[in-house]
Amino acid sequence: MSGLLEAARRAAESAYAPYSHFRVGAAVRAGGTVFTGCNVENASYGLTICAERNAIFAAVAAGHRRITAIALSCVDAAADAPAGSLMPCGACRQVMAEFAPPDLQVTIDRVGTVPLDALLPNAFRLT
User: Fold this and answer.
1) 22 and 76 Cβ atoms separated by less than 8 Å
2) Of the four, 40, 90, 97, 100, which is 20 to 30 A from 121 by CA?
3) Per-block average pLDDT, block size 10, for the chain (127 residues)?
4) What number of other Cβ atoms are within 10 A of residue 60's Cβ?
């Protein structure tokens, strides 16, 4: 998993975060391939996209429908940042639940590994 976490850290370096100054990177494995994403902010905040969704959507755009691993990194968070400030947002958790099994181990830099169903218990599902 350390290779995936390193890929997430590298992806964060490409983030566009002129408003929050909080660069985030994500790396997902799908179909044996690693896809990365970073957060991209917008002056109209609602148009911002998170790193996790960017990476997952890149995998989906390449034809994959199942994420088998994910790692996240917030490279600008303070060294003593509480775990809650390093976690994925609710929208990203729901997108993860769409493309990953509930027992997916989500690796969060400086926090550790957390099962998706612990991050998002009772995720919304149509099927």
Assistant:
1) yes
2) 40
3) 92 98 98 98 97 98 98 96 96 98 97 97 90
4) 19
Model confidence, pTM: 0.95
- Tell me if residue 106 falls in helix, strand or coil: strand
Please name the residue that has the structure tokens 């998170």: 50
Catalytic choice (6, 13, 41, 52): 52
Going by their DSSP bridges, the two strands 105-108 and 69-74 should be labelled as: parallel
Is 13 considered catalytic here?
no
Question: What pLDDT is stored for residue 1 in this prediction?
Answer: 61
Q: 38: how many CB neighbours lie within 10 A of its CB?
A: 25
Q: From CA 88, how far away is CA 50, in angstroms rounded?
A: 9
Is 3.40.140.10 the CATH classification of the domain at 2-119? yes
**Which pLDDT does position 2 carry in this prediction?**
73
**Element holding 15 (H helix, E strand):** none
pLDDT at 70: 98
Q: What six digits make up the tokens of 87?
A: 């976690």
Domain ranges of the chain: 2-119
